[in-house]
Amino acid sequence: MNKQKKLILRIISVLSAGLFLVPFYIMLINSFKTKKQLFLDTLGFPKTFDFNNYIVAWERLEFLKVFFNSLIITVGSLTIVIIFSSMAAWMLQRTKSKLSTFIFFVFVASMLIPFQAVMLPLVRIMGKLNLLNMPGLIFMYLGFQSSLSIFLYHGFVKGIPKALDEAAIIDGCNSFQIFWYIIFPLLKPITITVSVLNAVWIWNDYLLPSLVINKEASHTIPLRIFFFFGEYTKQWHLAMAGLTLAIIPVIIFYFFAQKHIIKGVTDGSVK
Amino acid sequence: MKKNKLIFWAFVGPSLLAFTLVVLAPLLMGIYYSFTNWNGIAANVSFVGLDNYIEMFNDSSFLDSFIFTTKFTIVSVIAVNAIGFALALLVTRGLKISNFLRTIFFMPNLIGGLILGFIWQFIFTKGFAALGELTGQGWLLGWLSNQETGFWGLAILLAWKMSGYVMVIYVAGIQGIPEELVEAAKIDGANAWERVKHIVFPLIRPAFTASLFLTLSNSFKLFDPNLSLTSGGPARSTEMLALNIYKTAFTFREMGVAQAKAVIFLIVVGIVTLTQVHFTKKGEVEM
């Protein structure tokens, strides 16, 4: 490639990266302005960096509390999804029977079902079971995320030689020992993929928590943001500070685990 | 043998139980409810035949949202894939900043749709207006106050969110193309566009299938950004199907009709995605 061409490419790159960042930039600069300043000059750089908006937003959002709610729900769901779907996938792949094939088929086929098709009866059933709360939400994520997770694990287990299982049986291992000591460690790459996909999905989910959580004390970040935004819709300076707070954890996580995230999200989609 | 069965259920049971209670049972109940006068509260429901379906087809908001969703899906699928592919070409040119660019382009994808909708609501209503006043461009004023700008607002939001995602899929596809093929074409005198058209396009068909599938289902089922960006307004003119079903249930409290809409939604989503996968898989090139 000649120099001129490279320069043009570089300019296009920088411009498009800039374009992608503009929304974040506008959000950020306005989160430091006073109400009046924001109204008078929306696009300009803030005259002073006032953290007052953040202090107010932090308190009104009860940020620490909703952050930990989101964290507990995400980590809790992730843990049980990984444990149970890897177990199920291994067993379904290793068992050659009509029932096993059928169950796997039902899991895979259900990935097409849009949430709206099940949401109304779901709330009713869960209400009857007294599960319209945080533990219930975690249980529901196991149900919803198991299809994709089992599908991904199943594909990966296929590539692990059955001879390993058989050798372990000869050595006297039972099924649980085979799975946890031999198979599960080998599943690590796909476990990372499954974790990333589920974590991103659960952390950002709004609709399911909004139907399940009715106690304010159990709000997740997206849920609280929804109410916060409704209240402060004419006070954009506070809204912008609140939104910035809400995305900071994701951005931090992204910069630490970027490679795994990009790989995980795409691996999950291509299969 | 009995022991084997027990072990089978010990491994498969927990996921299957959750899945049955959360997906399968509600699905079947939902189909049943769509033929009843269920209102979400009363315990006794009675069978009403096709009443909900008839009411649904008489509900002009549903038809409108169907048309809106279809148009939106077509525009988004084209925009997201075109931009995503262009970005993929850009970041595979061996520039030093490629990795940094990839990070930036992918970032919006990780932020929840609800939050993105609120951010863009500010950009469109305040940012665009300020820019419009500054430059005297009238078309920048009054965004999200009518159907047209609501439509393009949603399309811009989704293109911004998803292009980086399909970019990564296309990058994987492009990097899988053997270097020799491109070199051989260069020696044979193919220019950049010819190389893209005759080598890159045919060989990234699997990546294309995946991206198409993803963008299609994500745009057709879009909910969160729709709720937070326009909430379907003004006057329900930018309501997509998922939001229409949601509002039928929770704003208008017509559970039976909402459930009938959801069943139709399910059928359409199923048909569209299966057809699409069938056709794109057919045209893939074997290497």
TrEMBL record, chain A:
Any single Gene Ontology cellular-component annotation: plasma membrane
Keyword list, A-Z: Cell membrane, Membrane, Transmembrane, Transmembrane helix, Transport
Broad class of the protein's primary localization: membrane
Protein name (Swiss-Prot/TrEMBL): Raffinose/stachyose/melibiose transport system permease protein
Family according to the record: Belongs to the binding-protein-dependent transport system permease family.
Compartment(s) of residence: Cell membrane
Annotated TM spans: 7-28, 66-90, 102-126, 138-157, 178-203, 236-257
One GO-annotated biological process of the protein: transmembrane transport
Listed Pfam families: BPD_transp_1
Domain ABC transmembrane type-1: residue ranges: 67-257
Gene3D superfamilies in the cross-refs: MetI-like
Organism of provenance: Halanaerobacter jeridensis
Record membrane topology: Multi-pass membrane protein
TrEMBL record, chain B:
Parts of the chain that traverse the membrane: 7-35, 66-91, 103-123, 151-172, 262-279
Gene Ontology CC: one annotated term: plasma membrane
Keyword ATP-binding attached: no
Keywords recorded for this protein, A-Z: Cell membrane, Membrane, Transmembrane, Transmembrane helix, Transport
Family from the record: Belongs to the binding-protein-dependent transport system permease family.
Residue intervals of the ABC transmembrane type-1 domain: 66-276
Membrane topology: Multi-pass membrane protein
InterPro entries: ABC_transporter_permease, MetI-like, MetI-like_sf
GO term, biological process aspect, one: transmembrane transport
Pfam families: BPD_transp_1
Xref: PANTHER family: ABC TRANSPORTER PERMEASE PROTEIN (PTHR30193), INNER MEMBRANE ABC TRANSPORTER PERMEASE PROTEIN YCJO (PTHR30193:SF37)
Predominant location: membrane
CDD domains according to UniProt: TM_PBP2 (cd06261)
Protein name, entry field: Raffinose/stachyose/melibiose transport system permease protein
Subcellular localization(s) per the UniProt record: Cell membrane
Organism name: Halanaerobacter jeridensis
Cell membrane found in the keyword field: yes
